[in-house]
Amino acid sequence: MILTEKHKELIERIGVFHEHKGMQPLVGRIIGLLLVHEEGEVSFDEIVENLGVSKSAVSNALTFLQAKGRCVYSTRPGDRKRYFAMKVSDWREDFEKELENIAEIQKFIDEVLEVRTNKNPEFNCRMRDFSDFLGFFKKEIPALFDRFKKQQV
Amino acid sequence: MILTEKHKELIERIGVFHEHKGMQPLVGRIIGLLLVHEEGEVSFDEIVENLGVSKSAVSNALTFLQAKGRCVYSTRPGDRKRYFAMKVSDWREDFEKELENIAEIQKFIDEVLEVRTNKNPEFNCRMRDFSDFLGFFKKEIPALFDRFKKQQV
DNA sequence: TTATTGGTTCTGTATTTGCAGAACTAACTG
DNA sequence: CAGTTAGTTCTGCAAATACAGAACCAATAA
Asked: What does the pLDDT look like over B110-139, one tens digit per residue?
């Protein structure tokens, strides 16, 4: 597949987006390429060529993405190449994990509340309030998915 | 205020947590200190002493936190020092922003779908599904806050 | 006025990051 | 067997990061 300027520009923006999320630049670009690529399956050297980077960099980035469970590869009979693809399949699971990860701050807030004295009750009260909300939020996540299913038809 | 080992250890863990979120180490430690500190208001040089870092580093980190709207300072009559505190007050707003930020990936997914051909309809279908969910999710956020308020009594 | 306090800005640097390039391995091919 | 292909691992380096230290500034105090 040959990439148009529009493709390249979109890949670039998806890359930057993921960089801001803490990933290294190339990892973000690869995510972009795998998403934009027609077949959704891209060979190792197609990545190397399209992104203009070294094999070692691609190898490391793909190892990382696989370790994080965000990408997989498949092989084809009589072809030693590996074809890499995003695991969009379980976006539900991924998204759930990301939400729970956000709510992880609750753990710290609760620990902070245990350690704090009563010298600033207003501060404590607000933190308790926030912690309560995070607990509520976590509980509500499954229901959210259910409601989505229902209204989807 | 004198910090116990428990305080220091908690500050450290809160620091690492924020580092993983992409912030620079000292910024994370300062967040920890401001949360753990009894009064919730900490002077510039208390930060310098307790964290054992230079004035310049603290100055830059505080400028950053203020720019991000995560911390503020207040002064006291007849006292030139600045007392810094976290803005736990509007956690609601912050949290809402963070959720919307997550959902921002929808924008990219939609752009990707526009660019993609129909060579891999299953892939496209899943992405469309994910995009739909993200749209649903964004719409549901305000209702989530409302329900929290109600069940809170 | 000079001295002190509270904080900022500038300059330099040790550490870390992100990648290139080469050497390497493992599997297939002729 | 030697040669090729597909990818990995190792070594090194340019650039970015995160901070220290010193110079600096602005406001108050003496």
From this structure: 999 999 999 999 999 999 999 999 999 999
Buried b (16+ CB within 10 A) or exposed e, A116-139: beeebeebbebbeebbebbebbee
Q: Which two tokens stand for residue A120?
A: 């600033």
Give pLDDT tens digits for B1-14. 889 999 999 999 99
- The reply to whether A9 and A64 lie within a common domain is yes
Q: Using N-to-C axis directions, what is the helix angle for A91-102 and B121-152, rounded to 10°?
A: 30
B140 touches chain A (CB under 8 A): yes
Taking CA–CA distances from B86, the nearest residue in chain A reads A123
AA identity, residue A59 = S
Of B44, B61, B86, the residue at which a domain comes to its end is B86
Q: Which residue is nearest to nucleotide D6 (CA to C1')?
A: A81
What distance in Å separates residue A101's CA from the closest CA in chain B?
11
Three-class secondary structure of residue B11 per DSSP:
helix
CATH code where residue A17 lies: 1.10.10.10
Exposed, middle or buried: residue A142 (CB in 10 Å: 0-12, 13-18, 19+)? exposed
Q: A31 is in which domain, residue-wise? A: 5-86
Task: Answer yes or no: do B65 and B11 share one domain.
Answer: yes
Q: Is B50 helix (H, G, I), strand (E, B) or coil?
A: helix
| B105 shares a domain with B53 | no
CB A22 to CB B17 under 8 A? Answer: no
**A77-102 as b/e: b if 16+ CB within 10 A:** eeeeeebbbbbbeebeebbeeebeeb
Contact B131, B114 (CB under 8 A): no
What is Dmax (Cα atoms) for chain B?
Answer: 72
> What pLDDT, on the 0 to 100 scale, is given for residue B101?
85
Nearest chain B residue to A93, by CA: B130
User: Among partner residues A115, A123, A129, which is closest to B40 by beta-carbon distance?
Assistant: A123
A78 and A97 together in one domain: no
